[in-house]
């Protein structure tokens, strides 16, 4: 696999649940190298750009509101095949469907939660990763 970079977001639910360390531990244990990180409440414009592909869908506004509900840890990680590799560490979008051994499968925990409360985001392609890294880390 090529060495590539991906954009990871540790979402507000994970930050509130003190899961930053556990999630970074899994990323590093897999051999991926964090090269930039920032913990803060995002700007609404950043989220609008980040989630542009979902604009107009019924879950779009609840998703944006949730992402504004507290600090998010944005991380750029580098490694061989890290784009599909982190998606595989994260597990299926809906934690209810996510396999054991994945972040969402192991830590999703509460079946009453909404789908957007799925702990992490990871870029889904080389193009998405480039686009998303430019949104969250314009100086990288
Ligand atoms: P992923 O985060 O696995 O890339 P996605 O890009 O399809 O998933 O969707 C972005 C986020 O939107 C996802 O993390 C949670 C939320 N979401 C997706 N599908 C949803 C749905 N059917 N109902 C509610 N929220 C949803
Ligand atoms: Mg996605």
From TrEMBL:
Record-level Gene Ontology MF annotations: nucleoside diphosphate kinase activity
EC numbers for this chain: 2.7.4.6
Sorted UniProt keywords: ATP-binding, Cytoplasm, Kinase, Magnesium, Metal-binding, Nucleotide metabolism, Nucleotide-binding, Phosphoprotein, Transferase
Catalytic activity entry: a 2'-deoxyribonucleoside 5'-diphosphate + ATP = a 2'-deoxyribonucleoside 5'-triphosphate + ADP; a ribonucleoside 5'-diphosphate + ATP = a ribonucleoside 5'-triphosphate + ADP
Location of the Nucleoside diphosphate kinase-like domain: 3-140
Entry annotated with the keyword Cytoplasm: yes
Subcellular location(s) of the protein: Cytoplasm
Active site: 121 (pros-phosphohistidine intermediate)
Record-listed ATP binding positions: 11, 59, 87, 93, 104, 118
One matching Pfam family: NDK
Cofactor: Mg(2+)
Keyword Glycoprotein: no
Source superkingdom: Bacteria
Principal subcellular localization: cytoplasm
InterPro entries: NDK-like_dom, NDK-like_dom_sf, Nucleoside_diP_kinase, Nucleoside_diP_kinase_AS
Function: Major role in the synthesis of nucleoside triphosphates other than ATP. The ATP gamma phosphate is transferred to the NDP beta phosphate via a ping-pong mechanism, using a phosphorylated active-site intermediate.
Family as reported in the entry's similarity comment: Belongs to the NDK family.
Subunit structure: Homotetramer.
Protein name: Nucleoside diphosphate kinase
Origin species: Saxibacter everestensis
